[in-house]
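Minutes, methods subgroup
Present: GH (chair), OT, SY

1. OT presented the first of two proteins processed in the latest run. Sequence and structure tokens recorded below as shown on screen.
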Amino acid sequence: MEDSSSTATNVARAILAVLDYSSTSETRKSAVQFLESIKSGDVRVLANTSFVLVKKEWSSEIRLHAFKMLQHLVRLRWDELSPTECKDLVNVSIELMSEVANACENWPLKSQSAALVAEIVRRQGPNHWQEIFTTLASLSANGPLQAELVLMMLRWLPEDITLHNEDLEGDRRRLLLRGLTQSLPEILPLLYNLLERHFGAAMSEAGTQHVDLAKQHADAVIACLNAIIAYAEWAPVPDLARYGILSGCSFLLSSPDFRLHACEIFKIVCSRKRPSDGSTAEFDSAISNMFQILTNVSREFLFRSSSSSSAIDENDYDFAECMCESMASLGSTNLQCISSDNGVMAVYLQQMLGFFQHFKLGLHFEALLFWLSLMRDLLPKPKAAAYPSGEGSSAGSVDSSGQVDSEKKKTLSLINDDISSALLDVSFQRMLKKEKVPPGIALSLQPLELWSDEFEGKGDFGPYRSKLLELIKLTASHKPLISSTKISERVITLIKNLLASPAPLQDLAVMDSQQLALDCIVATIFDGSNEFAGGSSEVHYALRRIFEGLLHQLLSLKWNEPELIKVHVHYLDAMGPFLKYFPDLVGSFINKLFELLTSLPHVVKDPATSKSRATRLQICTSFIRIAKAAGKSVVPHMKGIADTMGYLAKEGTLFRGEHNILGEAFLVMASSAGAQQQQEVLSWLLEPLSQQWIQAEWQNDYLSDPMGLVRLCSNTPFMWSIFHTVTFFEKALKRSGYRKSKLGTTSVTTPASHPMAHHLSWMLPPLLKLFRVLHSFWSPSVCQTLPPELRAAMTMTDVERYSLLGEANPKLSKGTSIYADGSFDGSKEGQVEDIRNWLKGIRESGYNVLGLSTTIGETFFKILDANYVAMALMENLQSMEFRHIRLFIHTCIVYIVKTCPMDMWESWLGVVLHPLFIHCQEALSSSWLGLLQEGRAKVPDLFGVESGSDMKLEVMEEKLLRDLTREIVMLFSTMASPGLNTGVPILEHSGHVGRVDMSTLTDLHAFKSNSMVGFLLNDKRVALPALQICLEVFSWTDGEATTKVCCFCGVVVLLAILTNNVELRGFVSKDLFSAVIHGLGMESNAINSPDLVNLCREIFIYLSDRDPAPRQVLLSLPCLTPNDLHAFEEAAAKTPSLKEQKQLMRSLLLLGAGNNLRALAAKKNQ
């Protein structure tokens, strides 16, 4: 006994040392080691010591830790005790729980005492539960404090069912679930009796002013409700009803103190899925009863709230929100329980509409989720609209294809015109954010609680507005005429209010907020996939009349301020799909756009016109939108648009940037007119550009050497002229045949059919010259000779810096880059910013031009010399910044790799990839070494920030390093894609797992022409730096990069298995195998651990009999013995299962590394 007391004293000291902040690290470490030795030492010493320390004479901190030690014993060392010792531990633990059941004990000790008994009950198993439950039921009858402890234990008991416990195996979890289910006839009546008893006692004691006793009984009620919540998630709903749990909770819905907990139980049960066994009828009955209860309570709340909002406090609203969630859960999961009764359904929908209309945002939001879920379920899936034959079920608004069953049709018919109108009215009104409401309008909206940045718990405004728009779209699909009428009336009203407003700019926010709603409704009704033309003529006529009237209002507006015109143009944009079906209105629409364009000033030197410039660009962009939306309806007006463009250009009132956007719109229009007209439009647009672009004079003056480009940067008009030429090349390539397939691979048309093919020969050579001299700016020998303002312009833009830091740019993020075309204010800072924007823009658009040019067949590869391209683009690669290399790879190199014809791999890929891989390997290796060893990445990028921002610099440097790392391995992943490796067979086809027949091995050269990875491995100059990058990626702390490199390494391993190349096999068996295992030691690779384990499995299973290295690598692990490896090989040989082999390899690696492979350990704990 003396030894036990001494040990307890030592343990207590160790606990206090661990908790004491003033303890040294060595003291704390020694204390932790001592405590761990007690937990892992003699189990009886652990038990006796813990029971000593839970006594009242010790401090709360020590007692709490002692309870946790006992829980550890029960959870992990229970089997070491004899049956008698187990029984004694049960009795002592229940006695402890009884002892802490007094008003003086704090809640954590009570909770841990209950958790200990719950842990014991789980370990004892169902066969011993009856005796324990009898004891606990008897204890709960002793008073409210004892009942509270028993109820807390019952709450903890099913925790391993509702919460995942890594220590609990699947069989034990199933056993626990089965045992608890069998025990529900004892548990649920006990819960009901305790709930009824202590609720009544709490009310009685409160009535006699016995506050302390009333609180004890109330605490027992709360504990009981918390316990019921733990069972409501999984216990059969009919059982919850049968034993009075649901009726007891329904009674508490009228109690202000307990209604929130009771409603939480209702919410959980309402979301339970309907069973498929014989208890369906009982389940439906229980849900129907709950619905009636919730309906009565919500009716009373909505009535009180509508008659006097001041009578409702925040507690009422919290309860109402939970009640609304319960009703929404019922409708989303178990609507079939009430949908058969139209009267009941009508009441339900009206109440959910009441919540949706409620001025409180929280209630409205929960109802919004319900209406979205309901409408998604009721409306046909393939088509968003089910008109245009009419409104409502009687008019056949639901698609007649039979996709919606009769039950859903019946429910959908209940969502009548009035409900649809109300849904739209509320949605329109709530499209406005509180922060944007002008003061005058804010008063008129009271007490409506609009979305605010201060509102917590519901996400951001953007996703919320998207939900409103989706509901508007679904409603427009169901009731097109109602939706059209409502939005038209609202927009016309807003226009009239704005025209009458003394300060229209202040009131513009409301008008601006409704544009997306109009856009959504018009797009839904007149979307081509909805077969609008197939509807009835009456509906067509009604819709035309509505939108024609609205369009007339929009066309008649005469606003002059840029802000008003910008919103005006947004509304015109929204009408585009309508014009597709009514082409006779297109002419007046286009005339209006030109009228708006010419009404705005075009002076470039006046800073006050910046808003006008932005609006002019917005108007020009509208031509693209109308060309897309209206399709062929715009084609007859192309000549008129061209004539107007020519006139404005001749008058000097159309900027090059605006001309480019209108030209892009022309390309979109031409794509609807056919290939011949598209070719003619391209020639018309590109011929004036080519006349300047191909001239030798400007190329000799500006592109022959770096100083020439310096002169170009001082010739601002010509500099921006070149920029606009390059950006139009980019637009022409994007709009003239370039596209992506669903698989993400580039779809390439033949040179003869692609309208841009014969233009590449004159477009690309000057561009390559431009890039050669542009890249030279960053070489040290050239950079030091540049003027100061140009060196300053080579630094990052503010937008780039804020992006790297993940911060919002406080400045106008697009303003300078979009409008900068020589219109700076004349200051030196303005000139630097102008050149900086030009350098950034010409690089981005130029790289895009090169990348897009590769996607139109073989033209790019045939008209250009690979060596010249490599020299022009790679000559100064060593001086390029990481951000530029990343962009270069992403927009140019990836496309060259993806689209290069197989018969031209030899002449192109080696030349282009060799210098890139060499430099990236050296640069990334050096930068990662700095980051991992010194805490700071070494990158060459010019940030252009003042000193004193070291922390931000470090963040930006690391982001640049990770971005480039991920981009280069993404290139590797692209090279390893199946489409570029068609000659590599699938190794384990149809589940076959085993060693490869040696007689089938081929030379690596056989894969040179049908596998890009095979081609790469045949060229050592290119392969060595690429493979070195792959090896190092596994040691860099970037899980995303590891994911991509695994794809490439998988093909490398496959080729090592399928070929007889000794050098490749040696690399994979030793270097790659070691690197992958090292990668498993990085916690950042936890998400990729299955892929890494599979690489290890493939290397060992398929190569260990052909090379000694795999065994040597595994035996070099610190904890792996030859016997362990032999046992693994025997087990792996016996199973043909891929899954089992992976599991065996995973276990072997964990064993061999002594559980130090953090990627596997982290994955296990996730």
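2. SY then presented the second protein from the same run.
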Amino acid sequence: MVNVSSSSEANDPPESSSGICGSTQQVQESESLDKPPPLPSSSEEKYHYHHGHNATSAPPHTVQPNVLAALFQSDLEDGLTASAAAARLETDGKNVLDSAGGVSVLGILVRQVSNSLTLVLILAMSLSYGTQDWIEGGVITAVILLNIVIGFVQDYKAEKTMQSLLSLSAPVATIIRDGQLLKVPSQDIVVGDIVKIKVGDVVPADLRIFEGMNLECDEALLTGESLAVAKTPAIAFDDPAIPLGDRTNMCYSSSTVTKGRGTGIVVGTGMRTEVGKIADMLNSKQGSDMVALTDDSSSTSSASARHYRRHWNKFKYTLKNSLGLIGTPLQVKLSKFAILLFVLALLLAIIVFSASRWMVDNDVLIYGICVAVAVIPESLIAVLTITLSVATKAMAKGHVLVRKMQALEALGGVTDICSDKTGTLTQGKMITRRVWIPSLGGDQTISVSGTTSPFSPQSGYLEIGGQRVDPTDVIKRNGVDTLVMFLNAVGLCNLAKIELKMPSSDTAATDEKSRHHASRGHSHTEPTQKLEWTAYGEPTEISLQVFAMRFNSGREELQEGGWKLIAEHPFDSVIKRMSVVYESPSGKRIVFTKGAVETLSGSLDASSYNSDEVLNRVNLMTQDGLRVLCVAYRVLPAYSDVDVSKRESVEDSLIFLGLAGLYDPPRLETRGAVLKSQRAGIRVHMLTGDHPGTARAIAYETGILSDTMPLASSTHAVMVAADFDAMSDAEVDALPGLPLVIARCAPSTKVRMVEALHRRKAFCVMTGDGVNDSPALKRADVGIAMGLNGSDVAKDASDMVLTDDDFASIVRAIEEGRRLFDNIQKFLVHLLISNISQVILLLCGLAFKDENGVSVFPLSPLEILWANMITSSFLAMGLGMEEAQPDIMLRPPHDLKVGVFTWEVITDKMIYGTTMGILCLASFVIVIFAGNGGDLGADCNHGYNETCGPVFHARAVSFAVLSFLLLLTAWEVKHFGRSLFSLDPLRHHGPFSVFPALYYNKFLFWAVVGGFLGTFPVIYIPVVNKDVFKHLGLSWEWGVVVGACVVYLAVVETWKAIKRRIGLWSGKSMITPEVLLEAEHGAAGDSTSSVSSTSSPSGSGYIVTDGSEAWAEAANQNKEKNEIVNVQTRQVHKT
């Protein structure tokens, strides 16, 4: 037997109807339970109901919602109080599952110990102790410990940063507390909260549903059933043990809402949910990669074999994770590169041993280890980790939350951006600007002007024929039933909620409600300063609801007047319309529908409108950038058998009422961001559900389209989704360029667009907010979901989340991605230059034999460690923190297939590294042969004796030259093409511009200063220099050091000049300071800069060569004066 709850007991909020049965979509009047379960006698029992501590309490699916509200000391309409929710959160904890997803201290420590650098150093340390070189062994031990500590601290901070950023992108739930509708992180939900869910939401906790409209949930995670489950909130079950899939009055945590909307009371959170119980039963909490590696359920294998494979797979996973082979593509690539260098180090050691005819004594062994240490870039992985951490923090400040690090690494190669219009390119705050109703006399158009607050029905005024009118006078003067029916349609066929509320959260709910009801008269006096209009819902519906409220025809007013909801068919992105069925106060059943004109026209009664007249009016509105919606209705016969639960039954033979023209102004920063993208060789595509005319108008306003576009491209620049989808792949590929604007876009169109871009070898960003956008987000190279209006399903499918839904944030993210890519290249070049120079020096140094025929170290092992660990590490960190170059968004996207090891990087590091190695070698030779007659002494590798003076001085010179050249290199690689003396011509110019340009990156500047000053104590402090580093202080030899620096600087500057002269790589089409200034100021303006095509992954890179920025100054003035452009008049008005 099934008992059905009473609708009166559910305490329905006015915006929704209680007890909508998911399968029938109709309100069911029901009988109350004969006897509800007994209430706990104490507050302690009430509080612990969800823990199961009260043995007399029945499971939630058998209990009436109002009884549950009493148990949890909540209210079905007003929810919990803020204080009660805070106390319960403090006691129960966060609404999260216990998992191993936190930061693993042991895992981080293992990564530090097991990387190739540490392995080489441990080997060197062992050999030092084995040869009883206690000083060298002790220093290497200290270096190993220092490296582990620094790497651990930085890696731990980076992991914590990623954890915090992921928590920021966690799902947000809509709840009712203190009678107010709030959005809070799902982890802050507590038992007793009233939660509202809609299509695309992930259910945040276990809910007992007490309101629903067409509500269906995908519960495959719990039940294994692939079909969504229709919910029946009005039903309460007798059987406490029925299966989860049959408890249709419950929604369970982590399930997904696939249809409709609903409201429920939280009955379980965290580990006390059904999915939490499953998590609690799992013995192993390994990550998904670990599960994939160790899972072996083959029934044919013996238990011992499965046990062996499981442990073997676990060992392989641990080994790969320790070596850095599990992570983002870039991290894996660099880890493999480090392993390759480790192998190279072993080969170089073999070369050293072979040069000594494999007569390996202590000297040869130490020399081999010295060469091996020289080839490893010790700080590579640590610097990469720090750089990625800095980038994620910068992205978060720029309103972009990174969910997958792969996307952060790939942003620099983006060639195309496919963006939604509403709320991304535009402000997302729509205003119903015009309403056209044919049956009105005269002008037939009602206009709204002077609006400064999109959510306020009191803001602005109405006009008909250019004359101001009062809303009540419009109805009285016309006396047209069509106008009243139109207002009823836009008010009732609408889920938005508009209310007047206090900005502060501590306002009493009762005062709030009284003021709200008192305000419904909508007098034209300004409201109290402490109150403000707040809206919840989609921008389109908010604007229509505000318009209806101007005439006292909002949904709440009409429902209080006797209108009762019977059925609802929510907006469908495919057919682009929404319908509701209401019972009027007189008892008539009336269908109200709104939607796109094209899709709704087939459902209209042809006799109710003039199609030519409507089409002409639509064209006039769309030309002014208005989004046009068609509004219609139908009165169902009193005794008809029309099944209101079927959409096709109610959306037929509709009577045309009129058109609503909605205006959503572009964001002030959108145009500048679009033009900035175009200058960077990135094409911007608008994929919108709007009318082609509206889409075209907004595209021109935002700069996506321009009059200077080549005719070949403009032919198909704007297309309707139906036409694009009708084309075959071959026909799409034959187009000279893909459409820049696709109107009436369906989710499947987005997928086809991504596939078409991939066939053209483009690398694309796709934005989305709805459930149906998930396939496109997953297929795009970088999927970006909307954080404010996006569904949880879209966020889960995305790589990044925009917290402000702003297109300009996407462009800033791409700029940050390019900065990250540049910086990784910079510190890679710097580290590898150091390694190449040391290898050249040490291999050539094999030829220097002392009196005993033993090869003399041009650099001692500890000098190499100092240069690599102390000098280079901080310089590399500083390069990782470099700001973006001024011309970073004036270059074409880089080719992601090539990655960071471009031919320019390879060539530069070889030229600079070889030059540095030769200069270090030459310095050593000059001191030994020119200054000391070629005296190499005897046994100078182990320590000092009276014959080692020349070698120790020459070794100090090589060390000083290496250190100072590394310092110079850190500044030279700030830009691969620009001269050191003109690094930043946009910010700094003049004969002394080099100094402020170098100081701009303060971390790098002080790292260079510290490296310079730190060289002198190492060379001059007694005992430390002779016994530890095996060199002596310098005198006249400083002239050799200075000369080497001058020669190195000349070689690097000459190579950069050659690149600029012949237009090679970064020297290609160098941007002049004038163009840089013009581009920066023109980013906010209506620039039509000409661009020249260059090579890029998609064959469409652009470099600015010239441009007209006449609009820039006016645009900047408009921004300063807080002005907006009125699309209707194309005139500028101050707000």
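Chair's summary of item 2: Confidence is low (pLDDT under 50) at residues 1-56, 283-300, 504-528, 1084-1135.
Next meeting: continue with the remaining queue.
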